[in-house]
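Chain entry —
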Amino acid sequence: MPVTTDSHDFDGLLDNFHEEDATKILAEGDSWFTYPRKFFIFGKDANIIDHLAENEELFIYNTSSNGDEAVSMLSGDQKFSLLKKLHFVKFDYLLFSGGGNDLLGKYDFDFLIKQKNDGDSWQDCIHTNRLEVKLNQIKSSFEYLCQLTQEYSKNKDIKVITHTYDYVIPSPVGFRVFDLFPTCPSWIYPYLMQKNITKEEDQIAIMKHILTSLKTALQEVEQNCDTLTVIDTQGTVDRNDWRNEIHPNSRGFKEIADKMYAKIKTLG
């Protein structure tokens, strides 16, 4: 059966990798790879990796963390930890989930949007130059990721797979313990409201534009990197299948995971 762990114990990783017939996967990313189950340990599969781990032939080592950004995962200690695993273990795939927090994190999303004045369109509410700078930063991180994996991976034929998230729907719903008790505010809705962007259609249009721009940026990297595969997952999750503002529920994440699993099978 598949082995999925969020442990960073490298010796344990080496000890467990004895199943020669398994498809060996290293997963590094953000909350879309590690969002907690409703009851933390118990409950339905709550992220992409949870669902992928249901497939018996996949051996997944998951080192993802909530809130991680693509830029931070490719620098400092996180970069070293990632490359150490890739260098000493012959992984078939690196699954990478990054870029979402770079755009929607604290001091990021607020920085990208403008105050809405009378007569402004939703397009007028985006700092296009700032968005371009941020997207170029994310692109550089993915280009660097491709170069590093090609240079240092034990498996020179390793494939890197990433996704493009989906069109989040701004709402006041943030993280709730047991999906009942609010413990933190939502991530993007408060900033939109503070900037007087109060119409739902404007909010949705802004998010669609930002996330479509991210997809385009990742696809541009893919065109110049044989190692990278970008799965277009936008338009996948039904409006009713969001657990909160930026995370799908179990059914929504399964839709994303199914696309990723299909791509793994195709590439394999």
Observations:
- The beta strands are 4-5, 23-29, 58-62, 93-97, 159-163, 176-177, 181-182, 228-231.
- The two ends are 19 Å apart (CA to CA).
- The chain has one domain: 4-267.
- The domain at 4-267 is CATH 3.40.50.1110 (Rossmann fold).
